[in-house]
Amino acid sequence: MADEWKSSSDSQGEDAKSWKLLEKALLSSVQEQRRSRRWGIFFKLLTFTYLFVALALFLPSLNLDKAATAGPHTAVIEVRGMIADREEASADKIIGSLRAAFEDANTKGVVLRINSPGGSPVQSGYVYDEIRRLRSEYPQTKVYAVISDLGASGAYYIASAADEIYADKASLVGSIGVTAASFGFVDAMERLGVERRVYTSGEHKAFLDPFQPQKEEETRFWKTVLDTTHRQFIDSVKAGRGDRLKVEGNPDLFSGLVWSGEQALQLGLIDGLGSTSYVAREVIGEKEMVDFTVRDTPFDRFAKRLGASVADRIALWMGFQGPTLR
To answer: Is residue 189 one of the residues assigned to a domain?
Structure first.
């Protein structure tokens, strides 16, 4: 009897262990399923978030037909910040905006809303030429430049192509001049005991190298380049402004100085005092404004920053750049 009871007890113990193992396996399976579901939900949410962010980034860059969403209007184009290639105020973006505005049948006038210290003479010249071309192609559509805080140098170059220029009485206007800046590290290199080795195939190929002493004849040559660019700038401003410029008795007009809007009005650099809304309402006669500015998406801006060359930044810092309208 004892043996039978012991055998029966052992059998029951084995069954209990089996049930526990089975229960443990089932619980483990359920937990694994729950974990899988949670990860599935997580990845679905991640995918949804990615798609949402992608849409938020790329939708603003779609070329929407503004004419389909607006009646008669004043077209506004921002010229903000440094005028340079790959910047917000690059010639490509401004010209693209101008063409879209002029081609819109509902555009009653175009306003360039300017807040810029200037920049590349090449980029500014491209925009200047395109404004004059569009004005001749669409003579019924007038172009007005409105300077807010600052309309200097290359920005004024662009403004001078407009039919009329407006500014606030405290705006800074002008700076019709050219600059090209650099540094000289010759003495610093000597103190550090560093020898500069440059190999060129042209006598003056390295004449802008900041680690080598300046040569008088090269400095004179570089001055002729700047003077030529300055003359081109002056000629363009004179062609754009015509007899409105008060050149007589104002020898500093093209010296690179800036004036307040009130002073600029007296010098003939601008035609009146007023804001963008004032020009749209009182001058163009259409207070409804539509922004035609071509802008980068946040994704584009991030990609540009990520892809910006370190060498380019160092070159700009050291002065390895062409003339700048300032």
So the answer is: no
pLDDT digits (tens, 9 = 90+) for 162-191: 999 999 999 999 999 988 887 877 788 778
Cα distance between residue 266 and residue 18, in whole Å: 102
Cβ-count burial 254-267 (b if 16+ within 10 Å, e if not) = bebebbbbebbbeb
Q: Residue 248: inside a domain, yes or no?
A: yes
Contacts of 98 (CB under 8 A, 6+ apart): 77, 110, 127, 130, 131, 134, 292
Domain that includes residue 285, residue range? 62-178+220-325
Q: What is the pTM of this model?
A: 0.73
* Burial class for 216, CB neighbours closer than 10 Å (0-12, 13-18, 19+): exposed
Closest to 72 in 3D by CA, of 108, 104, 100: 108
CA angle 91, 269, 148 (to 5 degrees): 60
C-beta of residue 167 within 8 angstroms of C-beta of residue 151: yes
58 vs 274: CA distance, rounded Å? 36
